Amino acid sequence: MQAVVEPKAYSDGVSTFLARAGKLLIGNQWVESDTGRMFPVEHPATGEVLAHVALAGVSDADKAVTSARQGFKRWSGLSPSSRAARLFRLADLLEQHAVELAELETLDVGKPFAAARMLDVPFAIETLRYNAGWATKLTGESFDLAYQSSPFSAGTIRQPVGVVAAIVPWNFPLLQAIMKVSAALAAGCVVVLKPSEVTPLAALRLGELAVEAGLPAGVLQVITGTGAEAGAALVAHAGVDKVSFTGSTAVGREVVRSCASDFKRVTLELGGKSPNIIFADADLPRAIAGAAQAIFFNAGQACYAGARLYVEKAVYEQVLQGLVAAAAALRVGDPFALDSEMGPLVSARQLTRVLDFVAAGRREGARVVHGGTRLDRPGYFMAPTVFTDVREEMGIMQEEIFGPVVCVSPFSDIRDVVARANDSRYGLAAGIWSSDARKAQTVARALRAGTVWINTYHTIDPAMPFGGWRESGWGREFGRQGVESFTELKSIATRL
């Protein structure tokens, strides 16, 4: 393990931002919360309080929705090319401030700065540009009526659903915010964005840049606060037409219950317990490195993390030894150190949750062959952890841990591994490693998951729809489908 390194000082631009980050964005104005309450935002690597941010309440949510409804008339009335131009301008501003945004992500989440700078921020910018392009490309279709004999002109058009409540989690704050905001705005909707109270900084800076980019008042509001108060108020608000939520399956259920009362449109990207399968004919060095990356990237705090690793018996010991070696070599430390490969977990609460799962796994008879402990240093660091001797019914095999913990299990044949991989209430993603293309495709089609990767992992693209089956959610983000999910389809028939 890498020795702890003193945190690097962040830039003056970030320091200045942190000093002003305590308000809500409503109607392009930065305003105090009606509650008068604030909450601290910590740096997970040190426990240092970075800023105090407004704790929005029910009346703040109501003001944000009211402003959004007024902004919807302005935004939806613009031409698609005008909306696209403003979104492209926002992307340019994000690119100009890319280093600052990466610093905010590292301070807020604790992820290595190198990853935030090279992966998170550039991908978020490209997602914004990709979705901006759809503003001018959303079309309906024309068709002949099947039953009517009189001459008719018939077709469909797509129209924006209206006001969107976008509620995003803490693991990829900037990317998740931009995924939802850019798709909704491209479709002609307006947004009230509620970031996680654990990681609100990037969303607030995004709000500043949106105003600078020329988004009209009411098009994007940013309110910070808890899910139980501000988030629930948005979901229940009669002025919200759609909720786009990413988070836990448990909270997703509550969102659905609330939205059912007035039939709000809902998109849910929820939890996962993704299987990752290595066959004996795989390129083993690449598969081992891929399996390590699948679970230890972002300290395992990814909904699609490869947390269940199934290895064909003929190569089980070789893969297990390789994975343990990769975990031991992983440089865990100060996220601002350029050679750090894994930072801390996001909070003391999350660290406790993960350690509780490790303890429960041990009690059930699973064996830790590497890690399993908190690292002795300031902040919320945990050693990358590898379990063996696991059974499918164990909690560590069934529940989403959301930490750097992988369970490794041998399998005997394709039917065996497919059955075990599908033995989950989730269905978000899965990985397959094999040199046999026919076998890999056969297994990919048999797995019950929204995304299946073959000889790769973490491959996500703005053009590729992403979402889950079963308790991993409803709907898709990214791609044409992600933008169209913010529209309603209208049929129009005209007698000629």
Furnish the topology, listing elements before pairings.
Blueprint: H1 12-20, E1 24-26, E2 29-31, E3 38-42, E4 49-54, H2 58-77, H3 80-96, H4 98-109, H5 113-134, E5 142-143, E6 152-160, E7 163-167, H6 173-186, E8 190-194, H7 201-212, E9 220-222, H8 227-236, E10 242-246, H9 249-260, E11 265-269, E12 275-278, H10 284-296, E13 308-312, H11 316-329, H12 348-363, E14 367-370, E15 385-388, H13 395-398, E16 405-411, H14 414-421, E17 426-427, E18 429-433, H15 437-446, E19 451-454, E20 469-470, E21 473-474, H16 479-484, E22 487-495
Parallel strand pairs: 7-8, 7-10, 8-9, 10-11, 12-13, 12-18, 13-16, 15-16, 18-19
Antiparallel strand pairs: 1-2, 3-4, 5-6, 6-22, 11-21, 14-15, 17-20
Helix pairs in contact: 2-8, 3-5, 3-7, 4-5, 5-6, 10-11
Describe the 3D structure:
The chain has 496 residues and is an alpha/beta fold. The protein folds into 2 domains: 12-270 and 472-493, Aldehyde Dehydrogenase, Chain A, domain 1 (3-Layer(aba) Sandwich), CATH 3.40.605.10; 275-462, Aldehyde Dehydrogenase, Chain A, domain 2 (3-Layer(aba) Sandwich). The chain has 16 helices and 22 strands. The chain has helices at 12-20, 58-77, 80-96, 98-109, 113-134, 173-186, 201-212, 227-236, 249-260, 284-296, 316-329, 348-363, 395-398, 414-421, 437-446, 479-484; strands spanning 24-26, 29-31, 38-42, 49-54, 142-143, 152-160, 163-167, 190-194, 220-222, 242-246, 265-269, 275-278, 308-312, 367-370, 385-388, 405-411, 426-427, 429-433, 451-454, 469-470, 473-474, 487-495. The strands form 6 sheets. A 7-stranded mixed β-sheet has the order 14-15-16-13-12-18-19, with helices on both faces. A hairpin with a 6-residue loop joins strand 3 and strand 4. Helix 3 packs antiparallel against helix 5 (113-134), helix 3 (80-96) packs across helix 7 and helix 5 runs parallel beside helix 6 (173-186). Mean pLDDT is 95; it is low at 1-8.
